[in-house]
């Protein structure tokens, strides 16, 4: 197994006296596509927020490529090579598709708080944004205002924004939520394409998406990881089936559980 891209050791999170995350241990190797699943209220989004810096752990450690990141600001973690999307689409609605991607690549190419560069003259920024535009298959929407895109197109753009900065660890929070089956299938192919060679961690309720993408799956229940294994082993795990209140993962895979 390769070195861990992301490692959580006995991570706990309290809000007041209530412990939401209760000793999560998780190790995700570089290059793996890993899904985090579990019933509603299991703590999946809280775990994502602890990894990406929105919350600081109450105790335990979170490491990115061996470096401790628990409690760091989100922008610091992003600059260390981790990028995430959100359940709610997070784009600049009044900017064009291209302008959204251009904003996303600026820092990674060394253009920090620079007031003396004209954006239109930055050839490397333009080329990188166009590369991402082609990767997500939205060249035909290059100059379209992002707020006028369909919902599925906006989600695709957000995935583009997430990868545009060149992060090696990508967190996707329910990337297919609200999509039709055909839109979801297209999103899966897009995610598979844009995460080649990268480490992917996703929270997703649609089991057909999870089983179609993940190399391994971790199941979170009441703030604890009860199982981490291959999709087939998770499908046959009795504790996992019980956690889904009698709904077998075979049924969920067939029907899609949102």
TrEMBL record:
GO BP term (any one): L-isoleucine import across plasma membrane
Annotated CDD domains: ABC_Mj1267_LivG_branched
Listed InterPro entries: AAA+_ATPase, ABC_AA/LPS_Transport, ABC_transporter-like_ATP-bd, BCA_ABC_TP_C, P-loop_NTPase
PROSITE patterns, per the entry: ABC_TRANSPORTER_2 (PS50893)
Single GO MF annotation: L-isoleucine transmembrane transporter activity
Gene3D superfamilies reported for this sequence: P-loop containing nucleotide triphosphate hydrolases
Keyword ATP-binding (UniProt): yes
Domain annotation ABC transporter: ranges: 6-247
Keywords: ATP-binding, Cell inner membrane, Cell membrane, Membrane, Nucleotide-binding, Transport
Listed GO CC annotations: plasma membrane
Protein name, UniProt field: ABC-type branched-chain amino acid transporter, atp_binding component
């Amino acid at each position: 197994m390769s070195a861990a891209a992301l490692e959580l050791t006995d991570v706990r999170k309290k809000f007041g006296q209530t412990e939401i995350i209760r000793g999560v241990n998780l190790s995700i190797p570089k290059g793996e596509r890993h899904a985090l699943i579990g019933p509603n209220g299991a703590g999946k989004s809280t775990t994502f927020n602890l990894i990406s810096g929105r919350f600081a752990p109450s105790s335990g450690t979170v490491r990115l490529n061996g470096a401790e990141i628990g409690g760091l600001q989100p922008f610091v973690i992003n600059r260390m090579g981790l990028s995430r999307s959100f359940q709610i689409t997070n784009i600049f609605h009044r900017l064009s598709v291209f302008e959204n991607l251009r904003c996303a690549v600026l820092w990674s190419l060394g253009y920090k708080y620079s007031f003396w560069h004209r954006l239109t003259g930055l050839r490397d920024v333009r080329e990188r944004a166009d590369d991402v535009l082609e990767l997500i298959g939205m060249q035909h929407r290059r100059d379209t205002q992002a707020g006028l895109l369909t919902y599925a197109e906006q989600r695709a753009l957000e995935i583009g924004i997430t990868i545009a900065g060149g992060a090696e660890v990508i967190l996707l929070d329910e990337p297919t939520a609200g999509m039709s089956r055909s839109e979801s299938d297209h999103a899966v192919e897009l995610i598979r394409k844009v995460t080649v060679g990268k480490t992917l961690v996703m929270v997703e309720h649609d089991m057909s998406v999870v089983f179609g993408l993940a190399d391994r799956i971790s199941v979170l229940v009441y703030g604890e990881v009860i199982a981490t294994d291959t999709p087939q082993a998770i499908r046959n795990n009795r504790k996992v089936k019980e956690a889904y209140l009698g709904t077998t993962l075979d049924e969920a895979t067939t029907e899609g559980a949102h």
